[in-house]
Request: fold
Amino acid sequence: MASPNQRREKGRGAGSNRSGRFEPLRYEADPDAEETDFAEEAGDCASHDAPRRRTLFLKDPSRSIVATNESPDLGFDASVNPYRGCEHGCIYCYARPTHEYLGFSAGLDFETRILVKQEAPALLRQALSKPGWRPRVLALSGVTDPYQPVERRLGITRGCLDVLLEFRNPVEIVTKSRLVTRDADRLAALAAFDCTAVSISVTTLDATLHRAMEPRAPSPALRLEAIEQLADAGVPVGVLVGPIVPGLNDHEIPAILAAAARAGAGFAGRTVLRLPHGVKELFDEWLQQHYPDRRRKVLNRVREVRGGRLNDPRFGTRQLGEGRYAEHIDRLFELGRQRADLAAAGPVLSTEHFRRPGVARQATLFD
Reply:
Protein backbone atom coordinates (compact mmCIF):
# COMPACT_ATOMS: atom_id res chain seq x y z
CA MET A 1 0.00 0.00 0.00
CA ALA A 2 1.28 3.45 -0.86
CA SER A 3 2.14 5.93 1.84
CA PRO A 4 -0.42 8.75 2.10
CA ASN A 5 2.50 11.19 2.02
CA GLN A 6 4.03 9.68 -1.07
CA ARG A 7 4.82 12.15 -3.84
CA ARG A 8 4.44 11.02 -7.43
CA GLU A 9 7.09 12.40 -9.75
CA LYS A 10 5.78 14.34 -12.72
CA GLY A 11 5.99 12.41 -15.96
CA ARG A 12 6.66 9.05 -14.32
CA GLY A 13 4.39 6.02 -14.14
CA ALA A 14 5.56 4.33 -10.94
CA GLY A 15 4.90 6.01 -7.62
CA SER A 16 7.78 4.33 -5.78
CA ASN A 17 11.13 2.69 -6.21
CA ARG A 18 10.73 -0.47 -4.17
CA SER A 19 13.80 -2.66 -3.77
CA GLY A 20 13.95 -5.63 -6.12
CA ARG A 21 12.97 -9.08 -4.91
CA PHE A 22 16.61 -10.18 -5.04
CA GLU A 23 17.90 -7.33 -2.86
CA PRO A 24 18.53 -8.02 0.86
CA LEU A 25 17.95 -4.36 1.84
CA ARG A 26 14.97 -2.13 1.18
CA TYR A 27 15.28 1.64 0.85
CA GLU A 28 12.41 3.84 2.00
CA ALA A 29 12.69 7.48 0.96
CA ASP A 30 11.80 10.23 3.41
CA PRO A 31 8.74 11.94 1.83
CA ASP A 32 9.70 15.25 3.48
CA ALA A 33 13.32 15.24 2.34
CA GLU A 34 14.58 17.04 -0.73
CA GLU A 35 15.80 14.76 -3.48
CA THR A 36 18.94 15.60 -5.44
CA ASP A 37 18.93 15.10 -9.19
CA PHE A 38 21.00 12.15 -10.36
CA ALA A 39 23.98 13.12 -12.48
CA GLU A 40 23.56 12.79 -16.22
CA GLU A 41 26.02 10.38 -17.79
CA ALA A 42 24.73 10.19 -21.32
CA GLY A 43 25.51 13.61 -22.76
CA ASP A 44 22.87 14.81 -25.17
CA CYS A 45 21.11 11.41 -25.00
CA ALA A 46 19.72 12.16 -21.54
CA SER A 47 16.21 13.57 -21.22
CA HIS A 48 15.74 17.01 -19.72
CA ASP A 49 11.99 17.12 -19.18
CA ALA A 50 11.81 15.42 -15.76
CA PRO A 51 12.00 17.97 -12.95
CA ARG A 52 13.66 15.69 -10.40
CA ARG A 53 14.82 12.22 -11.32
CA ARG A 54 16.59 12.35 -14.64
CA THR A 55 17.03 9.40 -16.94
CA LEU A 56 20.42 7.72 -17.12
CA PHE A 57 21.38 5.76 -20.20
CA LEU A 58 23.95 3.09 -19.37
CA LYS A 59 25.97 0.92 -21.73
CA ASP A 60 24.85 -2.69 -21.81
CA PRO A 61 27.89 -4.99 -22.14
CA SER A 62 25.97 -7.92 -23.67
CA ARG A 63 27.99 -9.87 -26.22
CA SER A 64 25.01 -11.58 -27.83
CA ILE A 65 21.74 -10.09 -29.02
CA VAL A 66 19.30 -12.86 -30.00
CA ALA A 67 17.22 -14.16 -27.08
CA THR A 68 15.23 -17.37 -27.46
CA ASN A 69 12.16 -18.70 -25.68
CA GLU A 70 9.99 -21.81 -25.64
CA SER A 71 6.68 -20.15 -24.79
CA PRO A 72 3.68 -21.49 -26.71
CA ASP A 73 1.88 -18.18 -26.01
CA LEU A 74 4.18 -16.15 -28.23
CA GLY A 75 4.23 -16.08 -31.99
CA PHE A 76 8.03 -16.14 -32.10
CA ASP A 77 10.88 -18.09 -30.53
CA ALA A 78 13.64 -15.51 -31.02
CA SER A 79 13.82 -11.80 -30.30
CA VAL A 80 16.13 -8.78 -30.28
CA ASN A 81 15.91 -6.19 -27.50
CA PRO A 82 17.99 -3.04 -28.13
CA TYR A 83 17.07 -1.57 -24.73
CA ARG A 84 16.51 -2.84 -21.18
CA GLY A 85 14.10 -0.70 -19.20
CA CYS A 86 11.72 1.74 -20.87
CA GLU A 87 11.21 5.46 -20.44
CA HIS A 88 7.58 5.27 -21.55
CA GLY A 89 6.81 4.50 -17.91
CA CYS A 90 3.67 2.43 -18.49
CA ILE A 91 2.52 1.42 -15.02
CA TYR A 92 1.20 -1.97 -16.13
CA CYS A 93 4.35 -3.14 -17.97
CA TYR A 94 4.95 -6.86 -17.42
CA ALA A 95 8.66 -6.30 -18.19
CA ARG A 96 9.29 -4.22 -15.07
CA PRO A 97 10.48 -7.19 -12.96
CA THR A 98 13.24 -7.93 -15.49
CA HIS A 99 15.09 -4.88 -14.14
CA GLU A 100 15.39 -6.59 -10.78
CA TYR A 101 17.83 -9.09 -12.29
CA LEU A 102 20.14 -6.12 -12.87
CA GLY A 103 19.99 -4.97 -9.25
CA PHE A 104 17.51 -2.21 -10.05
CA SER A 105 13.93 -1.62 -8.96
CA ALA A 106 10.89 -2.49 -11.04
CA GLY A 107 9.56 0.95 -10.09
CA LEU A 108 11.21 4.23 -11.01
CA ASP A 109 14.53 2.56 -11.86
CA PHE A 110 12.83 0.72 -14.73
CA GLU A 111 11.83 4.09 -16.21
CA THR A 112 15.01 6.03 -15.43
CA ARG A 113 17.89 3.54 -15.67
CA ILE A 114 17.87 2.46 -19.31
CA LEU A 115 20.51 0.02 -20.52
CA VAL A 116 21.48 0.65 -24.12
CA LYS A 117 22.85 -2.06 -26.40
CA GLN A 118 24.89 0.15 -28.70
CA GLU A 119 26.48 -2.84 -30.41
CA ALA A 120 23.14 -4.46 -31.22
CA PRO A 121 23.34 -4.07 -35.03
CA ALA A 122 26.88 -5.49 -35.14
CA LEU A 123 25.94 -8.36 -32.82
CA LEU A 124 22.88 -9.10 -34.95
CA ARG A 125 25.00 -9.21 -38.10
CA GLN A 126 27.34 -11.67 -36.39
CA ALA A 127 24.42 -13.89 -35.35
CA LEU A 128 22.84 -13.96 -38.80
CA SER A 129 26.18 -14.58 -40.50
CA LYS A 130 26.88 -17.78 -38.59
CA PRO A 131 26.46 -20.97 -40.64
CA GLY A 132 24.30 -22.42 -37.89
CA TRP A 133 21.75 -19.60 -38.00
CA ARG A 134 18.33 -20.93 -38.95
CA PRO A 135 16.34 -18.19 -40.71
CA ARG A 136 13.22 -17.50 -38.65
CA VAL A 137 10.99 -14.64 -37.57
CA LEU A 138 12.62 -12.32 -35.06
CA ALA A 139 10.59 -10.14 -32.73
CA LEU A 140 11.78 -6.57 -32.27
CA SER A 141 11.46 -6.51 -29.41
CA GLY A 142 10.05 -9.15 -27.10
CA VAL A 143 10.38 -7.17 -23.88
CA THR A 144 10.66 -3.36 -23.93
CA ASP A 145 9.69 -0.95 -26.71
CA PRO A 146 12.32 -0.69 -29.48
CA TYR A 147 11.06 2.83 -30.27
CA GLN A 148 11.21 4.46 -26.87
CA PRO A 149 12.25 8.16 -26.85
CA VAL A 150 16.04 7.76 -26.88
CA GLU A 151 15.84 5.72 -30.10
CA ARG A 152 15.24 9.01 -31.93
CA ARG A 153 18.78 10.03 -31.05
CA LEU A 154 20.61 6.70 -31.04
CA GLY A 155 19.02 4.88 -34.01
CA ILE A 156 19.90 1.41 -32.69
CA THR A 157 16.61 -0.12 -33.80
CA ARG A 158 17.04 1.42 -37.23
CA GLY A 159 20.51 -0.10 -37.40
CA CYS A 160 19.03 -3.51 -36.61
CA LEU A 161 16.47 -3.07 -39.38
CA ASP A 162 19.29 -2.29 -41.81
CA VAL A 163 20.89 -5.62 -40.91
CA LEU A 164 17.61 -7.52 -41.20
CA LEU A 165 16.99 -5.98 -44.62
CA GLU A 166 20.52 -6.85 -45.71
CA PHE A 167 19.90 -10.49 -44.80
CA ARG A 168 16.19 -10.40 -45.66
CA ASN A 169 15.39 -12.03 -42.35
CA PRO A 170 11.73 -11.59 -41.31
CA VAL A 171 10.89 -9.42 -38.30
CA GLU A 172 7.75 -8.64 -36.30
CA ILE A 173 7.57 -5.33 -34.44
CA VAL A 174 5.35 -4.33 -31.53
CA THR A 175 5.47 -0.69 -30.45
CA LYS A 176 3.33 2.12 -29.11
CA SER A 177 5.45 4.85 -30.69
CA ARG A 178 4.90 6.86 -33.83
CA LEU A 179 8.68 6.92 -34.18
CA VAL A 180 8.33 3.62 -36.04
CA THR A 181 7.17 5.66 -39.05
CA ARG A 182 10.69 7.09 -39.33
CA ASP A 183 11.71 3.64 -40.56
CA ALA A 184 8.85 3.22 -43.03
CA ASP A 185 11.37 3.03 -45.87
CA ARG A 186 13.17 0.04 -44.33
CA LEU A 187 9.92 -1.62 -43.37
CA ALA A 188 8.44 -1.18 -46.84
CA ALA A 189 11.57 -2.72 -48.35
CA LEU A 190 11.26 -5.70 -46.00
CA ALA A 191 7.55 -5.98 -46.80
CA ALA A 192 8.44 -6.43 -50.48
CA PHE A 193 9.91 -9.80 -49.45
CA ASP A 194 7.04 -10.64 -47.04
CA CYS A 195 9.51 -10.08 -44.24
CA THR A 196 7.75 -7.74 -41.82
CA ALA A 197 4.56 -6.83 -39.98
CA VAL A 198 4.03 -4.14 -37.35
CA SER A 199 1.56 -4.10 -34.47
CA ILE A 200 0.79 -0.75 -32.87
CA SER A 201 -0.29 -1.09 -29.25
CA VAL A 202 -3.34 1.00 -28.33
CA THR A 203 -4.44 0.75 -24.71
CA THR A 204 -7.08 3.47 -24.60
CA LEU A 205 -8.55 6.34 -26.60
CA ASP A 206 -9.12 8.34 -23.41
CA ALA A 207 -6.42 11.04 -23.22
CA THR A 208 -6.78 11.42 -19.46
CA LEU A 209 -6.37 7.70 -18.79
CA HIS A 210 -3.47 7.57 -21.24
CA ARG A 211 -1.56 10.37 -19.51
CA ALA A 212 -1.93 8.68 -16.14
CA MET A 213 -1.21 5.13 -17.27
CA GLU A 214 1.44 5.71 -19.97
CA PRO A 215 2.96 9.10 -19.05
CA ARG A 216 5.76 9.24 -21.63
CA ALA A 217 4.28 7.15 -24.40
CA PRO A 218 2.81 8.79 -27.52
CA SER A 219 -0.86 9.74 -27.36
CA PRO A 220 -3.59 7.50 -28.81
CA ALA A 221 -4.02 9.95 -31.69
CA LEU A 222 -0.35 9.68 -32.63
CA ARG A 223 -0.52 5.89 -32.56
CA LEU A 224 -3.45 5.92 -34.96
CA GLU A 225 -1.47 8.28 -37.18
CA ALA A 226 1.36 5.74 -37.13
CA ILE A 227 -1.02 3.04 -38.34
CA GLU A 228 -2.18 5.30 -41.15
CA GLN A 229 1.34 6.24 -42.25
CA LEU A 230 2.61 2.68 -42.24
CA ALA A 231 -0.42 1.44 -44.17
CA ASP A 232 0.09 4.21 -46.74
CA ALA A 233 3.73 3.10 -47.09
CA GLY A 234 2.65 -0.46 -47.87
CA VAL A 235 3.73 -1.94 -44.55
CA PRO A 236 1.43 -4.64 -43.09
CA VAL A 237 0.18 -3.06 -39.87
CA GLY A 238 -2.30 -4.05 -37.22
CA VAL A 239 -3.46 -3.02 -33.77
CA LEU A 240 -2.69 -4.70 -30.47
CA VAL A 241 -5.45 -3.86 -27.99
CA GLY A 242 -3.76 -4.15 -24.67
CA PRO A 243 -3.30 -4.57 -22.02
CA ILE A 244 -7.02 -4.84 -21.43
CA VAL A 245 -7.59 -3.87 -17.80
CA PRO A 246 -10.86 -5.41 -16.58
CA GLY A 247 -13.08 -2.73 -15.13
CA LEU A 248 -10.99 0.14 -16.49
CA ASN A 249 -10.59 0.11 -20.27
CA ASP A 250 -12.33 -3.07 -21.45
CA HIS A 251 -15.40 -1.09 -22.52
CA GLU A 252 -13.21 0.69 -25.10
CA ILE A 253 -12.36 -2.45 -27.08
CA PRO A 254 -14.89 -1.93 -29.92
CA ALA A 255 -14.00 1.76 -30.28
CA ILE A 256 -10.26 1.04 -30.42
CA LEU A 257 -10.76 -1.62 -33.09
CA ALA A 258 -13.00 0.63 -35.16
CA ALA A 259 -10.56 3.57 -34.94
CA ALA A 260 -7.61 1.37 -35.91
CA ALA A 261 -9.50 -0.04 -38.90
CA ARG A 262 -10.35 3.48 -40.10
CA ALA A 263 -6.67 4.35 -39.86
CA GLY A 264 -5.72 1.42 -42.08
CA ALA A 265 -4.99 -1.50 -39.74
CA GLY A 266 -5.43 -4.89 -41.35
CA PHE A 267 -5.37 -7.20 -38.33
CA ALA A 268 -5.86 -7.14 -34.58
CA GLY A 269 -4.71 -8.90 -31.44
CA ARG A 270 -5.16 -8.38 -27.72
CA THR A 271 -3.68 -9.12 -24.32
CA VAL A 272 -5.25 -9.01 -20.86
CA LEU A 273 -3.47 -7.38 -17.94
CA ARG A 274 -1.23 -9.54 -15.80
CA LEU A 275 0.65 -8.29 -12.76
CA PRO A 276 3.79 -10.35 -12.12
CA HIS A 277 5.96 -9.91 -9.02
CA GLY A 278 6.40 -6.27 -7.95
CA VAL A 279 4.06 -4.91 -10.63
CA LYS A 280 1.18 -5.89 -8.33
CA GLU A 281 2.18 -3.35 -5.69
CA LEU A 282 3.08 -0.67 -8.23
CA PHE A 283 -0.28 -1.01 -10.00
CA ASP A 284 -2.14 -0.98 -6.69
CA GLU A 285 -0.34 2.25 -5.71
CA TRP A 286 -1.26 3.73 -9.07
CA LEU A 287 -4.93 2.84 -8.66
CA GLN A 288 -5.00 4.42 -5.20
CA GLN A 289 -3.46 7.59 -6.64
CA HIS A 290 -5.52 7.95 -9.82
CA TYR A 291 -8.67 5.81 -9.53
CA PRO A 292 -9.34 5.11 -5.85
CA ASP A 293 -13.06 4.72 -6.51
CA ARG A 294 -12.40 1.90 -9.00
CA ARG A 295 -9.50 0.22 -7.21
CA ARG A 296 -11.43 -2.62 -5.57
CA LYS A 297 -13.50 -3.29 -8.69
CA VAL A 298 -10.47 -3.43 -10.99
CA LEU A 299 -8.39 -5.68 -8.72
CA ASN A 300 -11.33 -8.03 -8.13
CA ARG A 301 -11.92 -8.38 -11.85
CA VAL A 302 -8.23 -9.00 -12.49
CA ARG A 303 -8.41 -11.77 -9.89
CA GLU A 304 -11.53 -13.11 -11.60
CA VAL A 305 -9.68 -13.61 -14.90
CA ARG A 306 -6.52 -14.85 -13.17
CA GLY A 307 -7.90 -17.72 -11.11
CA GLY A 308 -8.20 -15.70 -7.91
CA ARG A 309 -4.74 -14.15 -8.17
CA LEU A 310 -3.36 -10.99 -9.76
CA ASN A 311 -1.05 -12.97 -11.99
CA ASP A 312 -1.28 -16.37 -13.62
CA PRO A 313 2.05 -17.41 -15.21
CA ARG A 314 0.73 -20.62 -16.74
CA PHE A 315 1.20 -21.12 -20.46
CA GLY A 316 -2.08 -21.03 -22.35
CA THR A 317 -3.85 -18.61 -20.01
CA ARG A 318 -1.46 -15.81 -19.12
CA GLN A 319 -2.08 -13.77 -22.28
CA LEU A 320 -5.90 -13.80 -22.25
CA GLY A 321 -6.99 -15.07 -18.83
CA GLU A 322 -9.79 -17.50 -18.10
CA GLY A 323 -13.25 -17.62 -16.55
CA ARG A 324 -16.55 -15.91 -17.32
CA TYR A 325 -15.24 -12.37 -17.38
CA ALA A 326 -12.37 -13.36 -19.67
CA GLU A 327 -14.96 -14.95 -21.96
CA HIS A 328 -16.91 -11.67 -21.91
CA ILE A 329 -13.77 -9.78 -22.98
CA ASP A 330 -13.13 -12.34 -25.71
CA ARG A 331 -16.67 -12.01 -27.11
CA LEU A 332 -16.46 -8.22 -27.02
CA PHE A 333 -13.16 -8.29 -28.87
CA GLU A 334 -14.29 -10.80 -31.49
CA LEU A 335 -17.49 -8.90 -32.21
CA GLY A 336 -15.57 -5.63 -32.54
CA ARG A 337 -12.93 -7.23 -34.73
CA GLN A 338 -15.46 -8.72 -37.11
CA ARG A 339 -17.44 -5.47 -37.32
CA ALA A 340 -14.25 -3.59 -38.11
CA ASP A 341 -13.33 -6.21 -40.73
CA LEU A 342 -9.94 -6.88 -39.18
CA ALA A 343 -8.11 -10.18 -39.62
CA ALA A 344 -7.48 -12.30 -36.52
CA ALA A 345 -3.74 -12.45 -37.21
CA GLY A 346 -1.07 -10.70 -39.20
CA PRO A 347 0.45 -12.04 -42.42
CA VAL A 348 2.60 -15.15 -42.41
CA LEU A 349 6.16 -13.94 -42.85
CA SER A 350 8.56 -15.65 -45.22
CA THR A 351 12.13 -16.89 -44.82
CA GLU A 352 12.56 -17.98 -48.41
CA HIS A 353 14.38 -14.79 -49.40
CA PHE A 354 16.99 -15.06 -46.63
CA ARG A 355 20.56 -14.56 -47.81
CA ARG A 356 24.00 -14.04 -46.36
CA PRO A 357 25.54 -11.07 -48.16
CA GLY A 358 28.87 -11.96 -49.72
CA VAL A 359 28.11 -15.67 -49.72
CA ALA A 360 27.29 -17.00 -53.17
CA ARG A 361 24.26 -19.26 -53.29
CA GLN A 362 25.13 -22.72 -54.57
CA ALA A 363 23.60 -23.34 -57.97
CA THR A 364 21.20 -26.21 -58.40
CA LEU A 365 20.19 -28.32 -61.36
CA PHE A 366 17.08 -26.17 -61.78
CA ASP A 367 18.84 -22.73 -61.86
Observations:
- The CA atoms of residues 63 and 123 lie 7 Å apart.
- The two ends are 69 Å apart (CA to CA).
- The chain is about 30% helix and 10% strand.
- Residues 1-7, 24-51, 362-367 have pLDDT under 50 and may be disordered.
